[in-house]
Amino acid sequence: MTKDTKIVARPGLNGRPVEDWLRALAANKVPSKAVHHVLDAVITNPELASYASTSEMAGASGVNVATVTRSAQSFGFSGWPEWRQEIRARYLGLLSAPELAVVHEASSTQAPFDATIGKHIEHLAAMKRAIDRSVILDFAKAISSAKRRLIVASGSFAAVGRTLAHHAGVAGYRCEVLDDTVVLTNALADLTDRDVLIPITFWRLYNSSIAAAREAKRRGAPVYLISDQLVSPIAELADRILVVPSEGASFFPSIVPSLSIVESVCAQLVKLDPERSAKAIAAAEKQWQEFDLLHFNSPKFQP
C-alpha cells in the first residue's frame, strides 16, 4: 500500500486511542529529533503506518530507513515490522466488522480468493522470519509440565483452541477448551500455580479473556498468550506471548497464522517426550478402531 491510498474509517476512531498509546511509548524517554519525526509521522497517520514498508515510513517521516528501524528499537520492538504489527492491530481493533471490510476494499483490487491467499502467504512468510523459536519451545514446555491446561478462546478463534486441545491431547497432554463464560468461570475456581492458562484472542479483545488472565495471575498460574498485540491489557498479564497476525482480506479475521502456530507448538510438544506421545497416539489409534470411527477399516464396509 502506498501513502496515497485512501482509507475510509469512522471519524475519530483512528485518532486518540492509537495516539495515546504511541505517546505513552515515549513518555519516559527523550527521543532524538529524528526519532521524534518518525513518532510524529506515525501519530499523524496511523493508517499509513499500519501498512507502510520501512522505506515508505522513512519517506513519510523525512528520515532514512535506518532511523525508522532505530526508532522502533528505541521503543522496545525488534524493528519496524514488529512495531507496525502493533500499530496495525490497534488500528484494526478500533474498527467494526463493516468498517474493516471498507478498509480492505479501499486498499485492494484483487479478487477475494487472491486477496485471501495472498494475505495468508504474507502472514506466514513474516512469521517464519520473525517468530522466536525459543518461545515455541517455552509454550510446549509449559503445556507438558502443567497439571491442567486451560485454553480460553471464543468466536472463530475457538477453532484454534480446539485444534490445540485436540493435537496436544492426542500427543498425551489433555487440555480443556473454555469457550463459554460459565464454563470458564467454573474452571477458574480451582486453578492453581501448577496449571497453565492459554488465552487465544485477537482483534477486539474479549473481556472474559482478560478477566481469566487476571484471575490466573492472582492464583499464581502462568499465562501463555497467543495474540496479535505485544502490548495490550491482556499482554500485560502474560508470562510469555506468541504474537501472531490475524488480519484477513475481508471482515473475517484469519485463523491460518494462529493454526500454524498451535500446530508448531504441538509438534514441539511431541519432540519433548517422543515416547510419551508415541504411546498416547497409539492408544488413540486403538480407541478409534474400537469405536469404528474410520471408514477404511470398518467391518461395515468390508467386501
TrEMBL record:
Residues 139-275 form the SIS domain. Residues 18-94 form the HTH rpiR-type domain. Keywords: DNA-binding, Transcription, Transcription regulation. GO terms for biological process: carbohydrate derivative metabolic process. The keyword Mitochondrion does not apply. InterPro entries: Homeodomain-like_sf (IPR009057), HTH_RpiR (IPR000281), RpiR-like (IPR047640), RpiR-like_SIS (IPR035472), SIS_dom (IPR001347), SIS_dom_sf (IPR046348), WH-like_DNA-bd_sf (IPR036388). Pfam families: HTH_6, SIS. GO terms for molecular function: carbohydrate derivative binding; DNA binding; DNA-binding transcription factor activity. This is MurR/RpiR family transcriptional regulator. It comes from Bradyrhizobium rifense.
